[in-house]
């Protein structure tokens, strides 16, 4: 990703120079994804009508810059993917990644499957299930990186998602301005889970409002 000086806020309705820098060759695919969100996504209740006019600034770019924290060639699990955020923007901006979209609701799963097929995203698969379901955990295994956005309070989210994080891996929880307060409130639970927690910001060189992420890192597996 080529750094750009932070300038005026990106257009909320159309892609601009920031989107071109973030998505690169995947910009056209992202435009098509935005059209699906504005159309079927709104009609089917996956995106609120008010969100349709601020997709680029509030959703697509906000999610794609998460790739700054994801190692090359990594396998990523997006928990509670909903309309595909952040998993699909991440997969488009980082085609080196393998992304699994985990979603429990049938109508959302159908939208995700149709979207992945329409955009021809070979590195993306859709799985129906809940992160807290033991059978789901056994079937999909563990991932070096697990993502979640606006899914649940941090303590509950960690309990659901950390069993799906491989040793040495990380849970990246996209949060808002309350991230540090959430982290403080969940401190005891996180200590009991044995993770290192921090708040980091993505997209600081390209976005007028960087994406706030709570990063929970699991310790590597013990050497024998």
Characterise the protein shown here.
With 224 residues, the chain is an alpha/beta fold. It has one domain (17-218): Vaccinia Virus protein VP39 (Rossmann fold, 3-Layer(aba) Sandwich), CATH 3.40.50.150. Helix content is 38%, strand content 22%. It contains 9 helices and 7 strands. It has helices at 17-23, 27-43, 55-64, 87-93, 106-119, 134-140, 154-161, 179-185, 187-193, and strands at residues 75-79, 98-103, 124-128, 143-149, 165-175, 195-202, 211-218. It has a 7-stranded mixed beta sheet, with helices on both faces. Helix 3 crosses helix 4 (87-93). The longest helix is centred in the first third of the chain and has 17 residues, at 27-43. It is globular. It starts with 16 loop residues before the first helix and ends in a 6-residue tail after the last strand.
Tell me the layout of helices and strands.
Layout: H1 17-23, H2 27-43, H3 55-64, E1 75-79, H4 87-93, E2 98-103, H5 106-119, E3 124-128, H6 134-140, E4 143-149, H7 154-161, E5 165-175, H8 179-185, H9 187-193, E6 195-202, E7 211-218
Parallel strand pairs: 1-2, 1-4, 2-3, 4-5
Antiparallel strand pairs: 5-7, 6-7
Helix pairs in contact: 3-4
């Amino acid at each position: 990703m080529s750094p750009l000086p932070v300038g005026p806020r990106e257009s909320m309705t159309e892609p601009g120079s920031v989107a071109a820098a973030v998505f690169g060759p995947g910009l056209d695919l992202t435009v098509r994804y935005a059209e699906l969100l504005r159309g079927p996504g709104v009609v089917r209740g996956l995106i609120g009508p008010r969100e349709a006019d601020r997709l680029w600034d509030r959703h697509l770019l906000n999610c794609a810059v998460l790739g700054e924290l994801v190692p090359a060639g990594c396998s990523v699990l997006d928990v509670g993917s909903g309309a595909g955020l952040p998993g699909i923007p991440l997969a488009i901006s980082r085609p080196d990644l393998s992304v699994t979209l985990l979603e429990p609701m049938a109508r959302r799963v159908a939208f995700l499957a149709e979207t992945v097929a329409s955009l021809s995203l070979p590195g993306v698969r859709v799985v129906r299930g809940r992160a807290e379901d033991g059978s789901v955990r056994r079937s999909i295994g563990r991932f070096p990186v697990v993502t979640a956005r606006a899914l649940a309070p941090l303590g509950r989210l960690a309990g659901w998602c950390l069993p799906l994080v491989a040793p040495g891996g990380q849970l990246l929880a996209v949060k808002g301005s309350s991230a540090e307060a959430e982290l403080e409130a969940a401190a005891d639970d996180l200590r009991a889970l044995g993770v290192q927690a921090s708040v980091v910001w993505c997209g600081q060189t390209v976005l007028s409002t960087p994406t706030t992420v709570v990063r929970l890192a699991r310790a590597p597996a013990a050497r024998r």
